[in-house]
Predict the structure.
Amino acid sequence: MALNQHKTWRLIDVLQWSKSYLRGKGIESPQIETEWILRDVLQLSRLEIYLQHERPLLPAELQQIKTLLLQRASGVPLQYVLGQAEFMGLTLRVGPEVLIPRPETEVLVETIIARLKSSPDTEWRILDIGTGSGCIAIALARQLPQARLNAIDISPAALDIAKANARLLQVADQIEFQELDILSHLPDCLTPYDVVVSNPPYVAGKMFAQLPDNVKNHEPHIALQPPGDELAFYRRLAAIAPSLLKPGGLLAVEIGGDYQVQPVCALLNEGIFASPAVIRDYSGHSRVIMAGLKA
């Protein structure tokens, strides 16, 4: 990688060179990703990068930029390269121990917030199953300061990251984290929950094989692939939610798209749950299924 440190590199030179380098490595959005790397290393805003385009860079800055570019060029997702990801306006710490938060999951959180804020109650209890980075629980806690949440995950490494994010974003006092395998154990439920929410592993078989390499090769398979078929977690959630929710409580889950609507809805027994609602994401794909527990 010919980023010669013996010449004087201005910020604009590094921006142009890095953009060309990433494009040559097949990165789809080389300019945006270059800007993110420069913002991270130089601690500048996007506007400041262009306002200070004549600024010469120090050798140490060049070396750090080179290191990050090499990681990204090797296929490591940008969020892992930088160690952070954006979710609902929040900056979360991420690493290969957790799934990278997606904009599609924001639809799940926004739907729950809208539903709760339309109710007369204010002190909600929420259970987040498979919390990963903590993005869902933390975003809910930030938007619902009187809510109390439990967040569970099978991975202790993921829970360490989620706890760190909760502390960083000042909601640690609202969330209790627990290591638990939901497929074989139930969380403590002394008081029924208003909401059970989950973005479970649901990518199996051919769908997993079709994932982009940067996802399949770098993100944790335990957060992507369910054991057995793609409905394993939905089947379990449909079975245990009635014992976790209060009457009228809400089960809200993320799904992979239109192909999962019918099989997931079929698991929500009409004698126990009200007719499920399907919410689409910003691209028009079915993304969230919500069903209320009948009183």
